[in-house]
Amino acid sequence: MAPPPPLTPSLILILLATFLTAAAACPPADLAALQTFKSALTDPYLGLFDTWTGSNCSAYFGVSCDPATARVTEINLRGESEDPILTKAGRTSGYMTGTISPAICKLDQLTTLIIADWKGLSGQIPDCVSSLSNLRVLDLVGNSLSGQIPSQIGNLDRLAVLNLADNRISGGIPESISKLESLKHLDLSNNQISGRIPNDFGNLKMLSRALLGRNQLAGPVPNSMSNMYRLADLDVSMNQISGGLPGWLGDLPVLSTLNLDSNAIGGDIPAKLLGSRGLGIMNLSRNALEGEIPDAFGPESYFMVLDLSYNNLKGKLPGSLSSAAYVGHLDFSHNHLCGSIPAGEPFEKFDSASFGFNDCLCGNPLSTC
Ligand SMILES: *[C@@H]1O[C@H](CO)[C@@H](O)[C@H](O)[C@H]1NC(C)=O
Ligand SMILES: *[C@@H]1O[C@H](CO)[C@@H](O)[C@H](O)[C@H]1NC(C)=O
């Protein structure tokens, strides 16, 4: 047997280089999936994909890989970022057309899929994304995606962020969504989503922000949501939500923003809701709320926004509002309120726009009684 060749310094270098290249090379299946994904997109301005060549996919713009396995773990393509690639091209926002290829689903180690704010991206969200079981962030905001939310989205049990806002998505919110037990941030705003908020929506125990505004949702706010003890921000504005305003909204321990404006919510405003301590922004404008405004404010009331305009509220103004720690913006206009506007804080700092178009409110800043 011939003795092994001596390890000359140049041979060591060659071996080292081979090893490094091997470590950096993405598996051919991932490379192929990236190329198919790229070929379904057209980027007319930025040359985003100029770096998407060769076998080192860590060097591809917007792609990250696992250092040990070289599998693709992140795709992060944002059109509204401060990214130098935008500033260099003299653009403040991105534009891209094309579709999201189902080839993306072959990248089964993906934890993050962000293809955000490209405006022109159309077609459907591939159903197979619900098989990307490592996915933690799915952010496709600000495109022109249509079709429905994949019905098996609930399989993504590690998903923490689901942002599909500002697209043209239609159909219902899939029932399976309530299985997303890691979900913290849900934004479906500004689409054409119809049907009801799923009955089991309250199973989303980790959810902190539920942004469902500007859709075509109907039916009630489901009672299961009374269990959502991490919910800080609930926005279902500009839909066709009906039924009453549940009193338990006032018991949600960290709820600070409640925007239910422009819906068809009727019945009384629960005293417990107005008296809720943490609530800082509440917009109930343009509903069918009736009865009197409960006299339930107190020294812990701190409202940046309190908008009850365009409802059917009657009776007099709640005197307890004078004891509120702070009210920044107040709108009680366009109701059927009557009686004199109390003197002093916080009433005195608002102008007539806050009180106008009622049945018989009077006193400063309206006409004297
Ligand atoms: C692969 O690309 C990454 C990111 O640009 C770089 O840090 C690394 O050195 C590259 N590996 C090789 C072998 O070129
Ligand atoms: C409350 O909602 C109404 C109707 O959707 C909107 O016009 C108004 O600007 C909102 N109020 C505030 C203070 O944002």
UniProtKB/TrEMBL annotation:
Q: Name one GO cellular component term.
A: membrane
List where in the cell it is found. Answer: Membrane; Secreted, Cell wall
Q: Which Pfam families does UniProt cross-reference here?
A: LRR_1 (PF00560), LRR_14 (PF23598), LRRNT_2 (PF08263)
Domain Disease resistance R13L4/SHOC-2-like LRR, first and last residues per copy: 112-208
Residues annotated as signal peptide? 1-25
**Which InterPro entries does this one have?**
DNA_repair-toleration, Leu-rich_rpt, Leu-rich_rpt_typical-subtyp, LRR_dom_sf, LRR_N_plant-typ, LRR_R13L4/SHOC2-like
PROSITE patterns recorded: LRR
**Leucine-rich repeat-containing N-terminal plant-type domain ranges (all copies):** 28-66
Keywords attached to this entry: Cell wall, Glycoprotein, Leucine-rich repeat, Membrane, Repeat, Secreted, Signal, Transmembrane, Transmembrane helix
Family to which the UniProt record says this protein belongs: Belongs to the polygalacturonase-inhibiting protein family.
Q: What is this protein called?
A: Leucine-rich repeat-containing N-terminal plant-type domain-containing protein
Q: Which organism is it from?
A: Linum tenue
